[in-house]
Amino acid sequence: MFYRPEDGHGLPHNPFNALVSPRPIGWISTRGADGSHNLAPYSFFNAVAYTPPQIMFASTSAKEDRGDTKDSVANIRATGVFCVNIVSYALRDAMNATSGPWPRETDEFAHAGLEKAGCESIDCPRVAAAPAALECRLTEIVTLKGAHNFLVLGEVTGVHIDEAVLAEGLVDYARYEPLTRLGYKDYARITETFALTRPGQ
């Protein structure tokens, strides 16, 4: 089949994000200007540069109590910092519990029964049980075409890695089974990997 997005797809559900998969999940923790804490998952997330290390995530909807966006972007606008918590399979239910459209005063850490840990290079909480976390300083928020679409870019200023996921100095995915987002209500976990050597290396 072929379809133009502006004409519709004719399928029971939009296939777009099912085709762009699997996607890593950026579990974004933020602090509001008032000191409140927020935690929410975003599957439009990835690394975008090595030196300096930089990441991106995109927010694509809004809440009535936040105007043109959601809690994460509103907090980042106010404080300029955020943390990306890596989601393991073991944390799938807690991650899902933080994905609801909760009121801005809701502390999703408490709602999901998650312990907070402090960051080192920024003033923001992180998920203590996460296998890894990336502390970030905002570099730019880009307004994308369409309503409520914002691309958030950040420079990684600190990296936390649980030593339990390291094997001979390398991150061992099988030790924490990264959770990935597919389409619809579907997720997947990474349980095995294989290596390919690039030509010329």
TrEMBL record:
Gene3D superfamilies recorded: Electron Transport, Fmn-binding Protein, Chain A
Alphabetical list of InterPro entries matching this protein: Flavin_Rdtase-like_dom (IPR002563), Split_barrel_FMN-bd (IPR012349)
GO MF annotation: an example: oxidoreductase activity, acting on the CH-NH group of donors, NAD or NADP as acceptor
Alphabetized SMART domains for the sequence: Flavin_Reduct
Pfam families to which the protein is assigned, alphabetical: Flavin_Reduct
Residue ranges of domain Flavin reductase like in the record: 19-179
This protein's name: NADH-FMN oxidoreductase RutF, flavin reductase (DIM6/NTAB) family
